[in-house]
Amino acid sequence: MTQEYVSTADAVDADLFRHVVGHLATGVTVVTTRVDGRDHGMTASSVTSLSMDPPMMLACVNNSVPTAAAIERSGRFTVNVLGQSHGDLAYLFATPRPDKFAGVQIVRGVGEVPILAEAIAALECEVTEQVSGGTHSVFLGHVVAATARDGAAPLTYFRGGFGRFEFERNDRAYEQARDMVLSRVFAAGQVITVDELADVIDGDRARAFYALTRLATDGLIRRDPERGYVIAPFDVRTSDDTFEARLAIELGVIDRVAGQADPKQLDVARHHLDTMARYLVDDHFEDFHAYLDANYAFHESIVALSKNPLLIAAFGALSIKNVMARSFGVTAQSSAAFLAVQRDLLTALEVGDADAARVAARSYCDLAKARTRQLLALTGGQV
Ligand SMILES: Cc1cc2nc3c(=O)[nH]c(=O)nc-3n(C[C@H](O)[C@H](O)[C@H](O)COP(=O)(O)O)c2cc1C
């Protein structure tokens, strides 16, 4: 993995950040609040003590989750610290649904905010300040009440797993779940729960949850506030939007670098193109996944010619491998035209011919969109 990022050393993209920051072990809490007579709660690990005098906590909450708006309006939050046997509560409060508190024992604290009866500690806070940080709001809270069950061991979170450091098993569960989505074991639009996924993988809910979270990041699963995890439909629009977004990025790169592209970076792209050619022979894939990896690395290295980390991150955010796996990956049949046009793109960049590079980038996008249409027609319009 580190090797892959050597060429873009100044760009810390989402995948790299998630991987590296996952080494920071944290506790797990459920942050609760209450507004307009309704209870809210969410699993949160980005919670920490801030100051002793006055006693203060902070909680980092994604602005897109309903609990963020609820805390902003109520001006209060309670940090419920989970114990080592509370993995179930962590899943429950991390999965969007309207009735998270059903069947959960609570007591009422200041401002009627719910406190989870099972929590090993609770800190009730009044918001003193709200700070914006990237996608999140950081709520600073003055602690007005605090209780703890002494001796209880906390639940910990490390590299996407609760309390256990079973990385390889987590990764295997993710890969298994990903293959199932890609091979359409689950239908588009189908709701999938942690329990259902656990049943079809290895029975372990923690690993099923880990897999669902990663699939959601990949864009293969959508988090619906009412329904929970839903298999994201893949259709012509998704495919067109993705390939056109990649084209827009590549055209921007061509405008910026044509005639002055870094030769070393062009060599990297050439290497990836040669790798692709080993796996797409004549009109079929010898090994689709190996082709896909090389294809991704090729386009990433084209985008990296810009030396602009934000563009590289935007390319990564397209989850293009998933789109390609769900379209081109359904059959070993392909076309040598894909390779030819990508070769034209690189050659044009090597000789500094911006017009030819633009033509090749557009042709590649058109070919990809047309191929998805053919494949969707074969599979009934949606996969
Ligand atoms: C272990 C773990 C830690 C999490 N930590 C945070 C966090 O610190 N901040 C955050 O915004 N979301 C965090 N989440 C995700 C939220 O729990 C999730 O988005 C939840 O659905 C939000 O609830 P709501 O949609 O009901 O508001 C975490 C999830 C897990 C499983």
Automatic annotation (TrEMBL):
Keyword terms of this UniProt record: DNA-binding, Oxidoreductase, Transcription, Transcription regulation
UniProt domain Flavin reductase like: residue ranges: 21-164
Domain GntR C-terminal: 241-367
Pfam families recorded: FCD (PF07729), Flavin_Reduct (PF01613), GntR (PF00392)
PANTHER family from the UniProt entry: FLAVIN REDUCTASE, FLAVIN-DEPENDENT MONOOXYGENASE, REDUCTASE SUBUNIT HSAB
Keyword Transcription regulation among UniProt keywords: yes
Signal peptide residue numbers: none
InterPro entries: Flavin_Rdtase-like_dom, GntR_C, NADH-dep_flavin_reductase, Split_barrel_FMN-bd, TF_FadR/GntR_C, Tscrpt_reg_HTH_GntR, WH-like_DNA-bd_sf, WH_DNA-bd_sf
SMART domains tied to this protein: FCD (SM00895), Flavin_Reduct (SM00903)
Family according to the record: Belongs to the non-flavoprotein flavin reductase family.
Keyword match Nucleotide-binding: no
Annotated organism of origin: Mycobacterium deserti
Protein name: Flavin reductase
